[in-house]
Amino acid sequence: MLQLDLLRHGQTELGHTLRGYTDDALTPEGWQQMQLEVLEKLQQPVQWQAIYSSTLIRCSHFARQLSQQLKLPLILNSDLKEMNFGQWEGCSTEEIYQREPELLASFWEKPSFYTPPEAEPLHEFQHRIQRAFQLIHQQMLENNWRQVLVICHGGVIKLMKCLASDQSPDHLLKIPAELGQLHTLYLNSHNPQSYALEASEK
């Protein structure tokens, strides 16, 4: 099995909003959240052999510094970006609820059937993320890497946890993925679409 440690970015300047493709930076607290999580992991026998990251700066800035610190190759991949929320980009759920309460409720309950205005449909998001992880799988095999770090977003981690636990992607918005938190997935080296969660997360 190949091991993928997924690290969600920390707190950002836009705070509690649907950021999606919006390219806001980490706050000092957000940077510290990620540092503390990585430091705790590094105190264990971690064997990261490469770092992958979303191209959005709330992920990529930290990834660049960490790759230099650990002297590991860094691979930036735009397919690892968060879901694009269209007209809801940069808005809090409270704001959206005030304007479109029924639409927000529909999206939260069944995102595969409701797409926010001008946003990325869930099936397209899933296809993009699976493409990104299939590439990671391929490159891990080519380079004989057994364990990598992937710095990405809440939606990405939630989707991968859905797939790893055989849940419908419609459960994505109900799955926890806290800011600055690590999650471990195991990938079948012979099947790029076969994932398993770390036992503590099942």
TrEMBL record:
What does UniProt give as the signal peptide span?
none
Gene3D superfamilies assigned to the protein according to its UniProt record, in alphabetical order = Phosphoglycerate mutase-like
Please name the CDD domains in this protein's record.
Answer: HP_PGM_like
Tell me the domain of life. Bacteria
In terms of InterPro entries, this protein maps to:
His_Pase_superF_clade-1, His_PPase_superfam, PGM_Phosphatase
Q: Tell me the Pfam families matching this sequence.
A: His_Phos_1
The protein here is known as: Phosphoglycerate mutase family protein
**What lineage does UniProt assign to this protein's organism?**
Bacteria, Pseudomonadati, Pseudomonadota, Gammaproteobacteria, Moraxellales
